[in-house]
Amino acid sequence: MIKGALYGVPTFLMCMLLFGSMAAGQDAPSPAFRIKPSEVVVPREVKLGDYQRTIRPFENWTLICDENLKIRQRVCNVTQIIENEAGQVAFSWSLAATKKGDPYMILRAAPVAKSDGGILLQFEGRKEPIQVRFNGCNNTVCVGMLPVGPLLREQISKSTAPTVSYPTADGRTISVTANLKGLSTAVKAIK
User: Fold this and answer.
1) What is the number of other CB atoms lying within 10 angstroms of the CB of residue 37?
2) In the chain, % of residues over pLDDT 70
3) Where are the chain's structural domains?
4) Rg of the chain on CA atoms, in Å
5) Whole-model pTM?
6) Average pLDDT of the chain to the nearest whole number
7) Which of 5-9, 41-45, 171-175 has the least mean pLDDT?
8) 82-181: which CATH architecture?
9) What is the tens place of the pLDDT at every residue in 117-154?
10) Rounded to 5 degrees, what angle do the CA atoms 67, 70, 73 make?
């Protein structure tokens, strides 16, 4: 066995395998790599390192809390995302609160939605669907807001599975089944 060999492979051969066969002084071609930025967008007024996100999965829902560590301010929402087989988001909604503490559902449709349309929530046993108009659309999402009132509270407590649908700009209708099961448990975890 050659001195300095690893598992029978001579040291010089191992170096060539690891580093290629570049001659001394040759620069390696520079591939186009970059450091991936954080998925957490830190508000401008907060110094990097003073902001923290926690993510807790629950049945059908994810609790996401962002906290400004310096001033001990935390903002949470509970989110559900429904995507197609290709991983494209068809619909998502989040339970959040206004600055005054009023609960709202923030509903998001794919950008193919008809911008002057809205989202229909059809609950089992209820004739009329809940209609939510879009507040606005851009090239990534269409957003609507729904206050959490007695009807929605009842549906949340029953863990129902509403049909969510919205028209697209090209005349189709996208329909998905959402699920409120697990939402109450996730909300209770906010302390």
Assistant:
1) 7
2) 84
3) 82-181
4) 25
5) 0.77
6) 87
7) 5-9
8) Sandwich (2.60)
9) 999 999 998 999 999 999 999 999 999 999 999 999 99
10) 40
Contact criterion met (CB below 8 Å) for 132 and 119: yes
Q: Of the given ranges (2-11, 18-27, 130-139, 168-177), which has the lowest mean pLDDT?
A: 2-11
Would you list the DSSP string of the chain? --TT-BTTB-HHHHHHHHH-SPPTTPPPP-----PPPPSS---TTS-TTSEEEEEEEETTEEEEEEEETTTTEEEEEEEEEEE-TTS-EEEEEEEEE-TT--EEEEEEE-TTB-TT-EEEEE-TT-SSPEEEEEEEE-SS-EEEEEE--HHHHHHHHTT---EEEEEBTTS-EEEEE---TTHHHHHHT--
Name 13's Cβ contacts closer than 8 Å, sequence gap at least 6: none
The pLDDT assigned to 37 comes to 86
* Token duo for residue 83: 């995507």
Q: For residue 21, what are its two tokens?
A: 């066969």
